[in-house]
Specification:
The protein has 246 residues and is an alpha/beta fold. The chain has 10 helices and 7 strands.
């Protein structure tokens, strides 16, 4: 039987329903929904968590509730503990990016993994961390290294998404436009050359060809859409009309 295709996010003794709801939103933002709660302080279900989840209710609806951490991770083969504080424990320490890649490799190999997040006041206790196989630590400002529960969940969830989804690092939103063709750009360049020729821009004569070449090079470097080309044609026509009226 195939195991889960994503890690379980285990919130250990969370104190405020609002933070549980915010954590659910953070998880669902990145397509994660395996939430487990260990001994939530204000009980469960929690209407404040539901209100804060706002659209991510499915994560709360499917959350597993456990009286202790032992039960919450009993079915897991590898557990990560998130902590910003140094511990007197010998364990592998991952950055969130490397931890997410490691999770993905383990899950692809059939393992069941979980990631622990501590309560808001002071984070995981040493007894909690001791149950984990590895630690996830973020390189934070040493003078202020405390992350909100939902922030920590979001950060790990984001890295999980990066590790498992092919994302385009940079893209251009075309908003329905199309890139201008070489022919369209050539017509625009000719239009400008003709009007600039009339205006006496290419002076002195012996520099005219190099000036036209520079302009052609300028057009080729500009990422123009078809609409951009039409706009520039229109701007030039209007400027010529205005100059002729004068």
């Amino acid at each position: 039987m195939q195991g889960p295709t994503e890690p379980a996010f285990v919130l250990v003794r969370p104190q405020m329903g609002e933070n549980v709801g915010a954590a659910a939103r953070a998880m669902w933002n990145f397509g994660l929904q395996r939430m487990r709660l260990v001994d939530p302080r204000d009980g469960w279900p929690n209407p404040r968590a539901v209100a804060m989840a706002s659209g991510a209710g499915r994560v709360l609806d499917g959350a597993g509730i456990f009286p202790d951490l032992e039960g919450a991770v009993a079915d897991c083969t590898f557990v990560y503990a998130t902590t910003a504080r140094p511990r007197d424990l010998t364990k592998t320490v991952f950055s969130p990016e490397e931890a997410a890649a490691d999770m993905a490799r383990r899950i692809a190999g059939g393992e069941r993994v979980a990631c622990l997040f501590g309560p808001e006041r002071a984070g995981l206790e040493n007894q909690d961390v001791a149950r984990a196989n590895a630690i996830i630590t973020v390189d934070l400002n040493p003078e202020f290294s405390s992350l909100n529960l939902a922030q920590c969940v979001l950060l790990v969830a984001y890295e999980w998404r990066r590790a498992t989804q092919a994302a385009v690092p940079v893209r251009t939103e075309m908003a329905g436009a199309q890139w201008a063709s070489a022919l369209e750009v050539d017509h625009l360049a000719r239009h400008f050359e003709e009007r600039l020729e009339e205006a006496g821009f290419f002076f002195p004569d012996h520099k005219a060809e190099s000036m036209k070449l520079s302009l052609r090079n300028l057009w080729s470097r500009m990422p123009l859409t078809g609409q951009d080309v039409q706009t520039l044609h229109g701007v030039l026509r209007q400027m010529v009309r205005w100059a002729r009226k004068g």
